[in-house]
Amino acid sequence: MFQALLIDKTDAGYGCALTELADDRLPAGEVTVRVSHSTLNYKDALAITGRSPVVRQFPMVPGIDLAGTVEASDDPRFQPGDAVLLNGWGVGEVHWGGLAQRARLKADWLLPLPAGLTAWEAMAIGTAGYTAMLCVMALQAHWAAQGVAPGAGDVLVTGAGGGVGSVAIALLARAGHRVVASTGRPHEADYLQALGAAEVIDRATLAAPGKPLQKERWIGVVDAVGSHTLANACASTRYGGAVAACGLAQGMDFPATVAPFILRGVTLYGIDSVMAPLARRRTAWQRLAAELDRALLARMTRTIPLADAIAAADDVLAGRVRGRLVVDVNA
Fold first, then answer.
1. What SUPFAM superfamilies is this protein classified in (predicted)?
2. Whether residue 87 is found in the same domain as residue 134
3. How many whole angstroms separate alpha carbon 97 and alpha carbon 104?
4. CB 206 within 8 A of CB 183
């Protein structure tokens, strides 16, 4: 038997509860993992609360991330005792996920835990931090092609107080960029500056409808917000700059014009973390293990027990959570 959060949708409604399940309830897969830690991401919060149709099969164990130890494997790439992690692949949406003490998964979805990272650190990074690194990789490849050096201009990070934003600030600042953090929580300025932000601006300056072209400022943008914020970020990106879009906290819409792209040569990169190929995932995780300051990671992370994850989902959606939430599924 093992404990898990279980979402179900019946005639009585949609609900999520901490449940004890038998091992024979686990779905098909080549590798069984004893989970030690998971996370609570924005998508997990949507799934738990039912505020967006994230879950597409019922019943469902949520949790798009997990880290733990292989218990059994029918695939030669993994042996009992191996430390592994997982992000995405539809886990927690169409296949039982990581907010549980045990998971059974396809071997193709798993990565060995990078050397130097603990399971807790991997989940403190989680999908949010891994997505932030994918954004940084896209921007850095673009800058390298354009001959843009670190320090050549400001880099904007929106949704800065969240998980993606927090990790992106730390990574970009360490790489030598001047980072401007946009947040709706001005009281978090000290926190954001401690991560490496050189300047903190109110998200209201970006969140309302704006002009198709605005004063050029950013050489690059990491945007986890979407909607008018993304449109304004593109409109104020410098000639030849780039924007990496990975989220929709403000909305899925993109009320923009083609002006920044055809008049300033701005490039918009769409960053998908769910189905990213394994080679890109490995590179991202190896770089996270090497480049992300562990002290900053600890500063941006709080750990909660599995039983508290349901209540914490509302806080995530309301923007009351700073940085990252690790879920200790055995606490």
1. GroES-like (SSF50129), NAD(P)-binding Rossmann-fold domains (SSF51735)
2. no
3. 9
4. no
- The kind and range of the H/E element at 64 are none
Residues 33 and 85 occupy one common structural domain: yes
Q: What is the pLDDT of residues 88-143, one digit of tens each?
A: 999 999 999 999 999 999 999 999 999 999 999 999 999 999 999 999 999 999 99
Name 149's Cβ contacts closer than 8 Å, sequence gap at least 6. 143
What is the C-alpha to C-alpha distance for residues 230 and 208, in angstroms, rounded to an integer? 11
Give yes or no: residues 310 and 263 share one domain: no
Question: With contact defined as beta carbons under 8 Å apart, do 181 and 194 qualify?
Answer: no
Dihedral pair phi/psi, residue 38, rounded to 5°: -135, -165
| Amino acid code (one letter) for 269 | Y
Angle CA 282–287–289, to nearest 5: 95
For 312, the domain range is 2-113+300-328
Q: Looking at the chain, how many residues does it have?
A: 331
CATH of the domain at 320: 3.90.180.10
